[in-house]
Amino acid sequence: MFFSMGMGWGVFITMASYNKFNHNVMRDTIIYCFAGEGTSFLAGFVVFSVLGFMSHETGLDIVDIIRTGPGLVFIAYPEALSQLPIPQLWAVLFFLMLTLVALDTMFVDVEVCVTTIVDLIPKPTARIRLIVTSSTCFCMFLVCLIYTTQAGIYVFQLADWYFAAITLHLITILECIAIGWIYGADRYFGDIELMLGKRPPILLKYIWCFIIPIILTVILLFTLIKYELPTYNDYHYPTYATGIGWFVAIISALPIPIWMVKEILGQKGTLVQRIKNSFKPNERWGPAKEYRLTNQYAESSI
């Protein structure tokens, strides 16, 4: 659920920034959880039924034929499809599905980068946004060309080994701490009440403050404790490749301490005062545009 929902990538923050102030984000969250994970649950039946079919056809135990990541998608699954009736049809449908999944995933990933850049421009226009979008897509195209080389699968495995397993957990843990403890879960509840006219269930407070940070911290610690050097099939990566992997894992989280130091240095007073002031909202904090409070909240305020 953590990986399939895209936690820690900034996608939800970016897409939610286009909502109206009074938009019911709680409803959207519930719908997304059931729709997204329901799809993953259904996909699990499809994957393991095919693996079971391969186990039956080959006479091997399923632990001997199962593969994860690119091995499952590009080797095990196509091999199973070739043994089905009308294999050409299933192969076309399968890889068409992969193409569509990749495209709609890239839509939101590109939007995160584009929105971040456009927000830094004082008066962005439609033409500027088009230029930023085109430039972002072109740069991503050039970077991803390395995956089309003969060494592409090894580069992909190296990036996936470090980036997804370490950085995402760390960023999401810091997000929970920032919302639940630094900004304050009660204050966050008040913001949601300001938008929706009612406070969320109190259970969410304990989930944000305790359950999610503890679970993710345990997973991250066990990932580091059980750490093994990256491998792909029988290939063992050299030492310098491990250094590159750790660099990839750290670089995406590096802006967090950099901007933290920048914010503290931008404050006035002693070091303790600067740290305290950096946790306070500035004069620009609040809805970006004019908004209308919900009737329920207006009535409760009276």
Give the tags.
disordered C terminus, 302 residues, mainly alpha, two-stranded antiparallel ribbon
Discrete helix count: 12
Average pLDDT, to the nearest integer? 84
- What is the percent of helical residues? over 70%
**What value does the Rg take, in angstroms?**
23 Å
Rounded to the nearest angstrom, the distance between the terminal CA atoms is 42 Å
Q: What's the shape?
A: globular
How much of the sequence lies in strands comes to: under 5%
Largest sheet: 2 strands, antiparallel
Element string (H = helix, E = strand): HHHHHHHHEEHHHH
Helix and strand composition category: mainly alpha
Overall number of strands? 2
Segments where pLDDT lies below 50 for 5+ residues?
294-302
- The order of strands across the largest sheet is 1-2
Task: Describe the protein in words.
It contains twelve helices and two strands; from the N terminus they run ααααααααββαααα. With 302 residues, the chain is mainly alpha-helical. Helix 7 packs antiparallel against helix 8. It starts with 10 loop residues before the first helix and ends with a helix.
